[in-house]
Amino acid sequence: MIQRIQTLFLIAVVMLSGLMMTGDLLLLDNSTGTLFSLRFTGLGEADGEPIQRLWPLTVIMVLVPLLALTAIFLYRNRTLQMRLTMITLLLSLGTLILGAYYIYMFDRKIDITVIWKAKAIFPLLSAIIAWLAYRGILKDELLVKSYDRLR
Questions:
Q1: How high is the mean pLDDT in each 10-residue block of the chain (151 residues)?
Q2: What's the predicted TM-score (pTM) here?
Q3: In the chain, what are the domains?
C-alpha cells in the first residue's frame, strides 16, 4: 500500500541504497598524494579500476535495496515485512561497520587520510529510516490485533 508512511520510508531506503552504488563513497589520500576511493565495486585508485574487490561490502550493498523493495510488496504479511525491514536495518548498520573495518585495515597498511563524501552517511540514514518503517509496520500490526480482540 503506497499510502502508508512505512512504504514511503522503505522507498527512501531503496533510493539511498541505490545512490550508494554510484560513484565514490569516500576518498583515501596517502602521504604521496595518491587518491584511493572506496566504491561499490571495491577499493581502487580514484580514476582507475579496483585494486581490491570487497565482496562482502558489495553483497550487503546489493541486499539492502532488494530487501527493502521486497518488504514494500509484503504489506499483506506484516510479520514477514517487519522481519525483512529489521534485516534491512541490520545490514545497513553492517555496511557502516564493514566500511569502517576496511578503512581501518587499509590505514594499517598505508598511512592515509580519509576525505569524507556525503554518501558516507547514507547507510546510517538508511538504518534510521528502516527503523522508522519498522515502527510504522509494528503500529499497524498492533492496530489490526486490537480490532481482532474486539470481535
A1: 82 94 85 82 80 89 94 90 95 92 84 84 94 93 81 58
A2: 0.88
A3: 5-150 (1.20.140.150)
